[in-house]
Specification:
single chain; mainly alpha; two-stranded parallel ribbon; 5 helices; 2 strands; globular
Length: 146
């Protein structure tokens, strides 16, 4: 994307990333087999975490805008793979904001596994939770794709 972001991400940063993500999604036709590292709910989870943690850049208006954007973007996605940071072997760099990471993971569970924002309509997209080693996760994904 070529953008530079502040050391501590802000609501504006996450909204900008979500908008870019949505632009990229719209470039593909139905049936295209494309993998994205993140889905639109990731950005909503980060924005909610900023609010939950009472961070200075938290913005409810931007959160609400992001929910609207995420809802439309999810209609273009077939499957979301959810990898819980709590239940998987994931390397975390020392400079990672662990408090933010934990809050985001909690929000992702709420939004993806429990549809806490009512974003997963008509069974779309399918949400698959994977855990374990990389090999175990890949096997779970392979089985789901059959």
């Amino acid at each position: 994307m070529g953008e530079s972001f502040s050391t501590e991400p802000s609501s504006d940063d996450f909204l900008q990333q979500l908008e870019y993500h949505n632009e990229r999604l719209q470039q593909y036709q139905p049936g295209s087999q494309v993998v994205f590292e993140r889905c639109s709910i990731d950005y909503v989870a980060y924005l909610q975490a900023l609010i939950d943690l009472k961070r200075h850049s938290a913005d409810v208006v931007i959160l609400n805008q992001s929910i609207y954007l995420a809802r439309s973007a999810l209609q273009l996605v077939d499957i979301v793979i959810f990898l819980s940071a709590k239940r998987s072997h994931i390397y975390v760099p020392d400079e990672e904001d662990l408090e933010l990471r934990a809050a985001v993971d909690t929000n992702l569970e709420r939004f993806l596994l429990n549809d806490g924002l009512d974003l997963l309509t008509d069974g779309r997209p399918v949400v698959l939770e994977v855990c374990g080693t990389i090999e175990q996760r890949l096997k779970m994904i392979d089985l789901a794709m059959v």
